[in-house]
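Subject: sequence -> structure tokens, single chain

Hey, anyone have a minute? Need the predicted structure for the following. Not urgent.
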Amino acid sequence: MGRPDWAPDEIDIERPSVARMYDYYLGGSHNFAVDRAAAQAMVAAVPEAPLMAQANRAFMRRAVQFLVDAGVRQFLDIGSGIPTVGNVHEIAQRAAPDARVVYVDVDPVAVAHSREILAGSDGAAIVQEDLRHPERILDHPDVRRLLDFDRPVAVLIVAVLHFVSDDDRPAELLRTLRDALAPGSWLVLSQASADGRGDDERAEAEAVYRRTDNPLWIRSRSELTALFDGFELVEPGVVWVPRWRPESPESAEEAERSAFIGGVGRLGG
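Reply:
Had a minute. Here:
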């Protein structure tokens, strides 16, 4: 089967992409056979993998709605991935048409497809950049065109940090972003956690992602909480993502199966 029209020429379709694997978990169609094979290997190792992706996506949507209700009108979504229904700009602009959103992703497929979706939109844009270079994100012309950093901005880094190793100094990356934000800004974080998981399951999951350019870096609840340095966590703090302000008690049952922890913090001052 040949390369589809939506696939940029520069991408390697023989190597799995974490963004396209995530798209597969969510039921999307922007993935290749190599991505599906890697995702299926992950499901074999961790059967809840699609549930994990869906629970994390639902957390993001609830967090955005919470932020819109809190008066936020500017969003910077770093590691946004391949667009699916219920993206940040759809949720935010449905409730607040004046909301502005900048998506950031390093994956060319995610960026190309986002550009298609956002064509003609004055209130949203996509930037191809890497969380590991926050200064380049902050200085990007499209970021500066849409977002006013003298006013509160919500930074979302959802299901991304487990691809950032300690060698990449995640606390320093987040500090650079925090220092650019006005008081009253927000930070939304989530990532995979091994809390409550067996060593064998964790090892199998890590082996799958070593096939990609983004091996897993699992963190505990206390490690993720520490990355909110300078932000005041809102209730219920850093929790399994289905337990973060669930729409119903039933949706938070067996929350640990999601394997994702997350939280939302506000910058004071």
